[in-house]
Structures are given as structure tokens and as C-alpha cells.
Amino acid sequence: MAFLCMFIKLTLFAAALTLTATSAASQAKPGCQSHCGGVTIPYPFGTGGSCNLSSRHFIRCDTTPNPAQALLRYPVTMGYAEVQVLHISLDGYVRISSNGDIGSDCYSSSGRVSDSSIGLYWLYDFAISHTRNKFTAIGCDTIAYITSSRIGLNYSTGCLTFCGSVNDVINGSCSGIGCCQTAIPRGMRGYQFNFDSRENHSSVLNFNPCSYGFVVEDGAYNFSVSDLSDTNFNKREFPLVFDWSIGTQNCTEAQRDTQNYACKENSACINPDNNAGYLCKCVDGFQGNPYLGCQDINECETLKLCSVGGTCYNTPGSYSCSCPTGFEGDGWKNGTGCTQTKPRPESFTILLVTLVLGSSLGLLVLIVGVWWLYNTLQRRKNNKLKQKLFERNGGLLFQKKMSSEGGLDKAKLFSSEQLEAATDQYNENRILGRGGQGMVYKGMLPDGRIVAVKKSTTVNESFLEQFINEIVILSQIDHRNVVKLLGCCLETEVPLLVYEFIPNGTLSHFIHDQNEEYPRSWDIRLRIAAEVASAISYLHSSASVPIYHRDIKSSNILLDEKFRAKVSDFGTSRSVNIDQTHLTTQVLGTFGYLDPEYFRSSQFTEKSDVYSFGVVIVELLTGQKAISTSRPEEMRGLVSYFMSAMEENRLLDIVDSEIAKYGLKDEVVAVAQLAQRCLNLDGRHRPTMKEVAIELERLRTRQGDVVPTNQPKQSELFVRKATESWDFTSSSTEHYTNCSITSTSESDVRPLMLDTF
């Protein structure tokens, strides 16, 4: 009886190990696709490259249908075909769906009308399993068999099925009345259907016009009387099982070929009885995928064969039991077990030491547990705070806008820890610039990229929508002369932006700072002007949604290590519908750059950006600031100063000395006249940014002749109106901040981010 109980337990244990091993073994090669649809793809099968052992084990995952389908290729006369895989087992078989591989033999009152006995051939690298499939025939006047003389195997097998009437047939029974089944030969890889009829179906046409034959997985087909009258039965799909193996060598031959031997650590080679090649399996006490290497099973966790008080020790491929100190026996549940020995004089001392050690260990565990609990609670608290800050800083608005704009994958959300590490905890030595709204830090990401981290000093909820909108705008822009936004962080006290690092400061510093290291030649200035024009033209004409920058000025143009221009700061920008001609909104901008027409009407058009760019061109030409107290009061505005000089033909007097010392080149005059057109008070007479960009690029590359265009009437009108329009600048002090004047009407526009620092 005891032996019987032991046998049952071992049987259950073996079953448990089998299930565990099967689950553990169903694994792909590391770094390879492990599933396709609902099908697990274990190595040696794989989806290409080094993921499969050989071409015969290649699985193509077709993601066109839903769910995806795993497809097994097999050679045919002109290339290859594919069949859908339903299951792959490391026990050496694969289930596939046989699509329409059903032979038929149909009759009418005139006799036989169709016969598919010409044959179907399965030219796979794997044999059709003779243990897991059955040849099945249905019909009431049917002699069906399959034959083949190909691939070195001659065979013929079949069965007969007859019935006098439909009443003779029993559902679910394939014993010869209406349905019959028989085994197929070992090693079969192709077959041909053959049919015959004793009475040409003359007695059964009313309920059985056709006979059918097919090979199907054993147990997968359940016969129904209605199948006898189903004329579309040959279009059904049934599962079929193939036996697969590794190569064509047996185990003895394969083990000699150590370089290509497929069985890995702790596995054994087996020769299948129905196929060429060999298979691998994990040896006893190990589990996993034998083609990748099997791992030891910890029997002490899955099996309790040690007696009460006995201690289990796991060993590679096995385990053992023993009794602790103070007990005697072998420790096995079905052995002598463990019995306590008689107390010895030193037992009390041993007990005391055990208690002390146990107490110390318990105290240590308690301390570790408290420390772990504290850290867990602290992390949870920090996570809640980060989520709260994320929502306060516009995180939900960010997700909504990025999702609606289709750019959620273009702007990365950085964690606070990442940016703290990148900026060395916001070290003062990393500060690149300061401003009224915050600071910009230089940082380095883990991948080695140098970045600029923009950090606000205060949280102003009125700027949140601008902040989020700048991220939306920059994520949509892909131009080499527009600063690239890498991402943001919204889980900190103040929101952070992460840009690409632009090393050579702003165009304003380039023009106005006396730094001999800066190359200020006319060619470089002209190239910078052309690059800025190209970027603004892209925003107006080529972006997926037209964008008005609304704050173009030299301090918002950065220069990289090669002094290439990068337009930045889209805090006040707006994206507009393609059919919109202007925005009626709050007046925002900077004195000296603000379009007078926009200032008067509160209507911002693309020509307003053209005007601001005209001021930047004049800065490049003259080296003067847009607003300067060193000039006479009526000429403090650079536009008035420039237009007056142009009207009086004094361009040489105001051009930067770095340019003038070489004389006035034709392209300098042409650029000055282009700036004059951009600064026209009537926006209708200003060129578009696309026209400006084309003209500057033509001048930069010196293609064609430079033909200055004089517009004296427009110049006169501009000078007169410009003086009138900019009278308010004459009473300003030396401190000129961004202009922010609210108009009486605001249209429904999409805003964009925070002010420049």
C-alpha cells in the first residue's frame, strides 16, 4: 500500500515537472520574437536572421490579418508556398491548418461529374505524423484510398464506407457507415487521393452526391450526418500535424559534428521513430528549451518528500534530505525520517546560542523591513507629488494636445531624476543664461548628447497653455534652422524644457558684442539672414499647419558651432488654418521689432513676421540695436534711422564698419533695398517670406546679376508714416521690455509657450 502511495506521488510529481518544463521550454532565442498572434514560437523555430536554426524552421509572422498569423514555408515546383501554423511543440510536432486539401468525388444522375483524384502533394521538409493523424473518408457509396510512389516511399491505404439510407448513419461514428478512418503510413510526405464507387451513387444521390477524403489530426474531426449532403465540404479547413526534426543526421552522426550539434547544456539527443534527423530533450532533473540550454529544477520547492523536521538540499538534477543537529535518521518521508536524540549536557548552551542568533536575525529582519517600508512609502509619496505637479504643470493638456496633433512620439517626457543628473543637480557652473522667467542650464544626457535645460523660476498658471503650446509647435517643426526641442519635464515644481545645445549664443550677441573671435564678415551675415529667412518661410508655407512666430528678433536667433542660424522661442507663436489670412488677438511683441500695422489693428498676418525680419536684416547691415538711446530721440528706433538714411542715400554712413571698409558691394545694396521692402508700413506691399528667402539665397550664392530695385514713393511714404507711428518710443527709457497690449477682441486661435529668458 505504501509503495502504491509513493508511486502515485511520483507520478503526480512527474506530471507537474512535465507541465513546468513545457512552459519553461516554450521560449524563443534571446532578442527574438517569441509570439505571432496566439502562437508561441520556440527556438529552433524563429522569424528570420539568427532567430531560427535553419531555413526549414523559418516562421513568417504575417501582421496583415488580425490577429496575426504564423506561416510555415515549404518548397513547391516553382518557389515556395506557405501554410498557417496553429501550434509548435518541442516534443517534435507542429499543427497546421490544411486549407482545402480535401479530395472529392461527385456524381449526378448522369454519372460522375468531378473527381479530384489527380492528387495533392505535400512537399514539406517534415513528415506527416502517422501517430497524430488519420485518413478519413465520408460517403455512402465510397471506396477511398491514398497512394504515393514519391520521395522514396510506396504505399497505399484507405477504407470503405456504405449506407443504405441516411437513417443508417450515426452522428459522431466513423466505424464504416457513412464515415471511416484509418491510420496512415510512417514517413509520409505526399499523397494522392483515389476514389471509386460501387453503384455510382445511384442509390444515394438524394442525400449523398459526393464522397470526400482527407488527412486530419486524430480527434479533430467530428462526423455529422449533414456532412454527407454538404457540397461545399471540400472547402473546409482541418488541422494537420507534421513531425519535425533537426537536420538529416541521426544522434550518433550529429554528436560527431560538434560545431553544428543542436542539443545544448543538460540535454540529450533522441532519434524520432518516424522521421529523419534528431530531436533534443532536457535530461531528468532539468527543464527549459534543450536547444538553448536546460536549467536545474529545484525539487525542494516543488516536491515535499523529506520528513517532518527533515531538510531538503537541491543538487544539480536531483535533491537530498537530511536531519538537523539534535535529530537522527535519513530525513526522507518514506525512510527512517527524523527523531530527536537524547539531550546532551551541551544542549542548553546550544539552545541559548540558537535563541540569541535567532533573536539577532529577527531584529535585523525587522530593521530591514522597517527601512524597506519607509522607502516604499516615501517613493509612493514622491510619485503622488510628481503626479500632482504633472497635472498642475499642464501634463493633461500636454497629453491631450500632443495626441490631437499626432505628435505624441516626437516630444519626450523626461523624469526629474534624469534632468537632475544631466545638470549636476542644477549646478551654478552649468548656467548658460538668466532671465526674468528663469534660467537655462547646460546638461549632458546618458547617451552623451549636450542639451540646454530651460527652467522657470516661478509657476504662473496663465503661462501653462503657452508653455504646452510651444512643445506642440516645436514637435511639429522639422527644419535644420529651427532649434530642436528634445522633450520636457512636468513632474517638478516648475516646468522644464530640454533643447538641443546651441553653443555660440544669440545673433544679438554676435552683432552687438565686441568679441574678436566672432567672424563678422559680410558673407557670414548674408548666410545667417538667408538661413533665418528659410526657417520663417518654412513656418509660413511648408509646415503641415502654417505657423506665425510673432516674436522674431536677433535675441531669438541662436548660432551653432558653425555659426548656422537656429530660430528659437515659440512662446507667443500661433498655428493657423490654411485659409486664415490673419489673427485678431492680444498684441504681443518687442519694441523695435513690432509691426506698426499690427500694433494699430491687433490683426497679425504673415507680413507682420516679414516686418520683424526686416529689422533683423537692418541689424545685420548696421550693427545697431533695434532701440538705442545713443541716437537722437526721433531716430532711437532703428527702423526710422535706417529709412531716413536710405531716403537720403546715406547707406554707407550707417553700414557696419566691418562691411563698409570693403566698400558697398552690390549685394549689400540689394539686401538693404530688400529690408526696405520688408519694412513697408503697408503690409500688402511687403514681400512674402518665401520671396525674401529666395532672394537672399540668390544673393548669397551670387547667381545672376544683382539688380537693385528702387521704390522712392514707397520709401517716402514709409519714412513719413514710420516717424508718426513710432513716436511712442521716443519717450521710453533705456529699458525696453516685451510689449503686451490686450485688444478688445480675440478670435479662436490655437496658442503656443513661456516668454524668452
Automatic annotation (TrEMBL):
Gene3D superfamilies: Laminin, Phosphorylase Kinase, domain 1, Transferase(Phosphotransferase) domain 1. One of its GO terms (biological process) is cell surface receptor signaling pathway. Its main location: membrane. It catalyses: L-seryl-[protein] + ATP = O-phospho-L-seryl-[protein] + ADP + H(+); L-threonyl-[protein] + ATP = O-phospho-L-threonyl-[protein] + ADP + H(+). Residues 1-24 form the signal peptide. Residues 426-699 form the Protein kinase domain. It is a single-pass type I membrane protein. Residues 296-330 form the EGF-like domain. GO terms for molecular function: ATP binding; calcium ion binding; protein serine/threonine kinase activity. It comes from the Eukaryota. It is found in: Membrane. The keyword Signal applies. SMART domains: EGF, EGF_CA, S_TKc. The keyword Membrane applies. One of its GO terms (cellular component) is plasma membrane. Serine/threonine-protein kinase that may function as a signaling receptor of extracellular matrix component. Binding to pectin may have significance in the control of cell expansion, morphogenesis and development. This is Wall-associated kinase 2. It comes from Hibiscus trionum.
